[in-house]
Amino acid sequence: MEYKTVGKTGIKVSSLCFGTMSFGGDADEKTSKAMFKRCREAGINFFDTANVYSRGRSEEILGECIADCRDEVVLSTKVYYPMSQDINAMGLSRRNIIHEVENSLKRLKTDYLDFYFVHMFDENTPIEETLRALDDLQAQGKILYPAVSNWAAWQIAKALGISAKEQLARFELIQPMYNLVKRQAEVEILPLALSEKMGVISYSPLGAGLLTGKYGVNKRPEQGRLVEQQRYTDRYGDEINFAVADRFSEYAVKEGMNPATLAIAWVMSNPAITAPIIGARNLEQLESSLGAVDVDMTSKWREEISALSITPAPATDRGETLLPEWD
Predict the structure, then answer these.
(1) pTM passes above 0.90
(2) pLDDT tens-digit profile of 18-57?
């Protein structure tokens, strides 16, 4: 396992981060703890969760897992989504952030979080309000660094400007969606991260299973998140994505590779990525993801794989270089 520094923080994390969304849901407690143990054996020291995962149960199980190794792991969780029917139990208001960080700390059985993510953008709360609440939590030692997930690049850049102007703790880590069929992050988010020296732990490297070899234009399994959960059907249901999955699976087979392993290795090879977040329902799925650390992804190999999908247009929608004409 290789280790990378998260932006300018000095914190070194494994080149794979394990996401515990399945804990207490698709994976029962016994399986969850077995996967955690396997991750630690493989050298993973970075674990990501969220208060909303299994309504707090993911945090509780992860808290039990890290009880005897808290100082050896880097831990992140999130706030935004509703945790109860109360009208104020969601969003990025100071009230909800202060309330939810305490609940997460209790469930995780720790007195601090290495990174605390805002899970989504909150249109009802000024960015300044959110940043000041996070800055207060950092000053109190309850979080080490604020982090951001699922914000547009302009929203993150605006937040960075406010943090600099008001001398508030800035976002040091970004968590965007990124895989071979969802490459929008390449346009502005990943360049922003490189420019501002921010860490990136991207999620969904397998596209909800789309890039595991199980899916294709004429290949649809009866079970799996992509067919069982509407949000993933909406996210990846376009036919072009299944065509890309077909091409990618054929390519992986030709290369003698497990498609899941190769898909994660492709994400890892982007220079802006600190660590892809891998997840699993069981140990068998986990093993194919862990194998990505042993893949030597050359630039030529990455280019060939990238050509299997559509490269997003540049931010300006203008790719040519114009030189001035001189007499």
Answers:
(1) yes
(2) 999 999 999 999 999 999 999 999 999 999 999 999 999 9
Ranges of each domain in the chain: 3-175
Distance between CA atoms of residues 293 and 320, nearest Å = 36
Is 251 catalytic? The answer is no
- Rounded Cα distance, 176 and 156, in Å: 11
| HSE value, Cβ hemisphere, 13 Å, CA-based, for 270 | 28
Q: Could you give the CA distance from residue 119 to residue 50 in angstroms, rounded to a whole number?
A: 8
8 Å CB contact between 132 and 109: no
Q: Are 249 and 206 in contact (CB under 8 A)?
A: no
CA 180 – CA 248 distance, rounded (Å): 9
Instruction: Judge whether 245 and 181 are in contact, CB under 8 Å.
Output: yes
Q: What is the CATH topology of the domain spanning 3-175?
A: TIM Barrel (3.20.20)
> Which residue out of 3, 53, 81, 112 is catalytically annotated?
53
What is the residue whose two structure tokens read 């849901």? 25
